[in-house]
Amino acid sequence: MNLNKLRVTDIDLNNKRVFTRLDLNVPLDKNCNITDDYRITSALPTIRYILEQGGKPILASHLGRPEGKFVSELSLEPVQKRLHELLNMDVLFSKNIVGEDVIRMSNELQEGQVLLLENLRFEPGEKKNDPEFSKKLSLLGDLYVNDAFGTAHRAHASVAGITKFFEKNVMGFLMEKEIKWLGYAAENPKKPFIAVLGGAKISGKIDVIMNLIPKVDTILLGGAMAFTFIKAKGLSIGTSLFDDEKIPETKRICKYAIEKSTNFVLPNDFVITKELSNESETNIVEKENIPEGWKGVDIGPLTTKIFKNALLTAKTIFWNGPMGIFEIENFNKGTIGIAQAIAEATGKGAVSVIGGGDSVSAVKKAGLEKSFTHISTGGGASLEFMAGKDLPGIVLLSDKGKC
Q1: Among 16, 48, 81, 201, the one annotated catalytic
Q2: Helix, strand and coil in the chain, % to nearest 5
Q3: Is 80 exceeded by the pLDDT of residue 11?
Q4: Which of 330, 337, 280, 335 is nearest to 308 (CA)?
Q5: pLDDT tens digits for range 157-172
Q6: Helices marked H in 312-378 — which ranges?
Q7: 133 and 161 Cβ atoms separated by less than 8 Å
Q8: Span 236-250, mean pLDDT?
Q9: pLDDT at 2
Q10: 5, 17, 21, 39: which is the annotated catalytic residue?
Q11: Is 141 a catalytic residue?
Q12: Who contacts 368 (Cβ-Cβ below 8 Å, separation ≥6)?
């Protein structure tokens, strides 16, 4: 993947309408209040730069999964209010995503104003990458900026189809930062390079693991997906979550790790319980001693110590996925311990890249948001990037020197 792409600083923005694809897909509570505005604050540098250069930002994003129809609970109106507070300026809002009314709003936008469109996914043409819908979106801007790394792996209209209608397609500051640090970890890491992978499902991580094995020195594996590997070794895992269909894949992964002389480290012990409740009884057992009726819900203290000692030797660290059910306090010690170890390693000079998703929530739970080199805004996108896949939102940006 060519990462030498045009930046927002490479084009003249003055007096231009700038269609700016952002990832403002923030979590909302039941009263539609924003509970975490990290993705909004991450987009501010690009918005402010466009304004400083005399441009007129037309902001576009999705929120949730409305499946091509209007869902009031997934409106971007709460995002408009938060942007107004953060930017301290007029943020106009269009309930129409395409059409004459919103074209008029974009043309009448004054310097120092911002226009935010309603949720792109209210339109069925967005996810279908419909050419006609893409063309209608393009009529809202003179220039195109993509700063939505979180959707870079989606070939949707506002990410892919729209690029055909602009001479130059450039990246914003967040996209540039994501490419820089994920690219560093994927292509040119300082050694030792350690990847920490967790989470519930192995299915979305197989390609990542296979792509990382030749590049890393060590993979530390936790979370529920570790049980598929342990089950493949013929050990009892009680009622722990695992994926029977992926057992052949785990054997292929382990064989490949041996071929490439990569340390592939599974947990030695687990916190186990019978019920997924903070009040339920817990025990700590070695990996081969999980009894029937019990399930693993976190890595144990010995594993946490082994993982920490390894991480403190690293020069580059990539982490994606919690070590257990970190949302429940009694099952979060392993995940918090790993976050603290990576933060400590970063403080000693390691480059640490947190691959979005639940890992970010875990980092915030540990109060360590400022303790890492880079925290990605894209869980799925960062995984596909680290798996070596082409991301449409990056590939379709204009290459430097070709425009």
Answers
A1: 201
A2: 40, 15, 45
A3: yes
A4: 337
A5: 999 999 999 999 999 9
A6: 333-347, 358-365
A7: yes
A8: 93
A9: 57
A10: 39
A11: no
A12: 339, 340, 343
| Beta bridge partner(s), residue 284 | 271
Residue type, 5: K
Structure tokens at 95: 């309930």
Structure tokens at 114: 């911002």
The answer to whether 201 is a known catalytic residue is yes
Phi, psi (deg, nearest 5) at residue 108: -90, 0
Among 402, 394, 400, which Cα is nearest to 172's? Answer: 394
Q: Alpha-carbon distance 229 to 10, whole Å?
A: 48
pLDDT tens profile 118-172: 999 999 999 999 999 999 999 999 999 999 999 999 999 999 999 999 999 999 9
Would you call 68 a catalytic residue per the annotation?
Answer: no
* DSSP strand pairing (295-299 vs 316-320): unpaired
39 is catalytic: yes
pTM over 0.90: yes
Show the DSSP H helices in 215-332 as ranges.
226-232, 247-259, 301-311
How far, in Å, CA of 192 to CA of 116, rounded?
Answer: 44
48-57, 140-149, 195-204: lowest mean pLDDT where? 195-204
C-alpha distance from residue 65 to each of 151, 186, 266, 377 (Å): 13, 30, 35, 18
Which residues, 6 or more positions from 342, have their beta carbon under 8 angstroms from its beta carbon? Answer: 196, 311, 317, 319, 350, 352, 354, 371, 372
State yes or no: pLDDT of 41 exceeds 90. Answer: yes
C-alpha 202/C-alpha 187 separation (Å) is 23
Give the whole-angstrom CA distance, residue 236 versus residue 234.
Answer: 7
The single residue of 135, 380, 388, 389 carrying the catalytic annotation is 380
Helix (H) or strand (E) holding 282: strand 282-286
Alpha-carbon distance 112 to 97, whole Å? Answer: 21
Q: What is the dihedral of CA 331, 242, 225, 327, to 10 degrees?
A: -30
How big is the chain by its Cα radius of gyration, in Å?
23
